[in-house]
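User: Please predict the structure of the protein below. I'd like the answer in structure-token form so I can feed it into my own downstream comparison script.

Assistant: Understood. Taking the following sequence of 318 residues as input:
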Amino acid sequence: MKRVEVPATDLSGLDSFNLSDLGTVQTGGTDGKPVRILLQEIEEDPDNSRTEIDEDYIKELAGSIAVSDVKEPISVRSKGENGKHRLNSGFCRLLASRMVPGKTDIPAFIDDDWDDDDRFVVNVQRKDLSPMDQARYLAKRLPKFGGNRSELAKRIGKSSAYITQHLSLLELPPSIQQLYDKNVCRNVTSLYELARLHKKDTQSVEQAIAGATEIGEAMLEQLRAGVKAKQAPAETENSSDPKDSDAPKAKNPKETEPDGDQLNVRILVAHKGKRYELVGKFVTTMRPTAGRVYVRKGSEKPIQIAVEDLALDQILVK
């Protein structure tokens, strides 16, 4: 066999080789696999619902990324005409990564089927969106559903009460808005209840929340009782007014509603990605406040829970 001399290969040029010069850095390439994308090739979505950012959280996240990198890939769309990937989700991870000295790329999934509602749902699940940001997004999306809150609720997997309560944040009285702005109260159900009581008895609510450092269930219960007590005498006085003696008396709800004080309950369930209503008659004699339901553990005393904080766990059939 004849021996052939092979010229030596000059590899000195690799000393100045920079991987970033190639553009997007791929580690996968097949469907379902993440790739590494240069930070400079990712742009934020101008329609992102987020307007409130926790700077301390971003700094803490950047510190973690500096040590352990980004463990969960972000989601982006394919490059557009401007040569940039538009961000779907992962705003905080992207922002924090840009703060890490020397970091040039980030793991990402490329998903072109993503839409604004998908990002909203992910951000809500991660609790990455503030209540007010959620409210603004819902107000922007509602016209797309013809103003139908139920349809919008179905699209994002929430209840109609969730939509109603969040939209109410956009019309809070100034005094209640201050509670939100100063982080005294950011519980949507509590803010909604305060606004509702404020319409009925502005003076009492204003006095109760003046200088408050927190808004708890005890305060709300006291306000409800106070408003109810103030309204009761007025109703009694109106009913005994001589001028109304000849007026037809209002029917007793128990005379027109066969279930009396019972509250009809609808239960919605999910099955194989579709929503259904559980067939049957479900009633309770306990009437909770707006946006809340009563729940009980064993023989313990029932407590009120915000509807949006509940998730269907199990249905037992006897």
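That's the full token string. The chain has three domains: 19-122, 129-240, 256-309.
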